Amino acid sequence: MLQEESDLSLVIAQIVQKLKGSSLYAQLERQAWGSWEKRILKSLNSMCTELSIPLARKRPVGEQKELLNKWNEMGTDEPDLSLFRPVYAPKDFLEVLINLRNPNYENGDSLSFRTHLGLIQVPLKVKDIPELKEFFVELGLTTGQLGIDDSNQVPPELFENEHVRIGQKVLAEQDSAAAQQYIRQGSPTALRAELWALILNISSQPEDILYYEQLKTNVIQHDLLVDSLIYKDVKLTASNDDYYFVFEDYLYQVLLCFSRDTSVLGHFAYNSASPPKSYIRGKLGLEEYAVFYPPNGVIPFHGFSMYVAPLCFLYHEPSKLYQIFREMYVRFFFRLHSISSHPSGIVSLCLLFETLLQTYLPQLFYHLREIGAQPLRISFKWMVRAFSGYLATDQLLLLWDRILGYNSLEILAVLAAAVFAFRAVNLMEVTSLAAAEAVLADLSTLKVMPLLQIFLFATVT
Predict the structure, then answer these.
(1) Where are the extended beta strands (E) located within 231-324?
(2) Is-contact 314 189, C-beta < 8 A?
(3) How many CA atoms lie within 13 A of 141 on its CB side?
């Protein structure tokens, strides 16, 4: 009886400790995000002051007509953006994550985690290789995959033709769950747009088109400071990309409408972050005079437009493209620039990436660490942008197939580790961060699915 009571006490103590840790981490999330949010807003307000421009203003009638007339040709407009700067870049956000600490573990509650030599020092639970193999079982070596069978010159009738036939059947039945399972083996190019829309529950109803037109009207009528940030970001990223520069007009249309969409605020209900607020002039601090700014609660950062760019290959009707992007953002992409303990959150992805490298490629990890080239400083930008702008578009879409299929972003961390494994021989010879970055500067020739399969199911034991 005493032994049972002792065991029970031990179990209760462990549960209490876990809850304590969880509570502290939730508090840590809120504090860290609050501090980061203040930095972002300070940067935004400083820009307003320096440039003597308001956060928002109503456009004069003449300006409204001009914008409406050039709505489909905004890429030809060349506003002077030289004085505008991105509010933050991924490397700034990484510094915030590096400084995250949980007081429980600082005091020695987790001795095992002290062996983690990466930059992320928050002990979250992440999957190991056996768990990843089980989770991504459909990526196994014995399962047919688009993106592998064709690259290995397997006769298409052995897999691809049958896969297309099944995909057409899934679409005919309009079964979202079946589409999600199906796409884990990759989507045929001709079916991808419809399959993604089915999985995301997107259908172009008249009310959806009307809603998009209302957002467009809001853009025409009101000018926001973030509009210039969007213009600047597109000019700095997608406009200079060989794959995406042709979609410049689409990117402006979608992102400007997105900034006005208050329905996006809904994702903050399951996000540790909170939307930034602005106050009516002279009413600072009075909550009844506070409004969310921008209306969608999302301040774009350097590279944000690259979440939209790949979707332009699939959807050419603006309202449909808009709906797909918005749903992708509120399901997945917001987690890549928010602080949370979610398995698909950027903190967990960083920790998963570092843990995989340290555990399964220890020599490479220690070598890079010793020369001041912590791997995460190189891979972070890939993961924050979900590899958009780094992989060839056909390979990126195969990767995003699996994000939708598994309803998880964890595959981003696995792919990042697989890239390091693929270039391990070259990386073992570098002696500086700059040299390591040079080795990994161009990912455009990589084949995503063979890399993932080899890393998960062949090389690592």
Answers:
(1) 277-279, 290-292
(2) no
(3) 7
- pLDDT for 160 equals 85
d(CA 38, CA 278): 12
CA angle 382, 395, 350 (to 5 degrees): 25
Q: Which of 320, 300, 110 is nearest to 328 (CA)?
A: 320
Q: Tell me what pLDDT residue 459 has.
A: 63
Closest CA to 128 of 448, 357, 421, 335: 357
Question: How many helices and strands in the chain, by DSSP H and E?
Answer: 20, 4
Compute the Cα dihedral for 41, 46, 51, 55 and give only its sign. positive
Phi-psi region of 369 (alpha: psi -120 to 50; beta: other; left: phi over 0): alpha
CB atoms within 10 A of CB 398: 23
pLDDT of residue 460: 52
Q: What is the pLDDT of residue 191?
A: 97
Distance, CA of 385 to CA of 381 (rounded, Å): 6
Listed as ranges, residues in the chain with pLDDT below 70 are 1-30, 102-115, 149-157, 272, 278-290, 459-461
The length of the chain in residues reads 461
Angle at 406 between CA 402 and CA 409, to 5 degrees: 75
147 to 5, 128, 160, 197: CA distances (angstroms): 57, 25, 10, 21
The answer to whether the beta carbons of residues 384 and 93 sit under 8 Å apart is: yes
CA separation for the pair 452, 413 (Å, rounded): 11
- CB 258 within 8 Å of CB 322: yes
Q: What is the structure's pLDDT at 286?
A: 54
**224 has which bridge partners?**
56
Q: What is the pLDDT of residues 59-69, one digit of tens each?
A: 999 999 999 99
Q: What is the pTM of this model?
A: 0.88
Q: Are strands 222-224 and 277-279 parallel, antiparallel or unpaired?
A: unpaired
Write out pLDDT tens, residues 327-353. 999 999 999 999 888 999 999 999 999
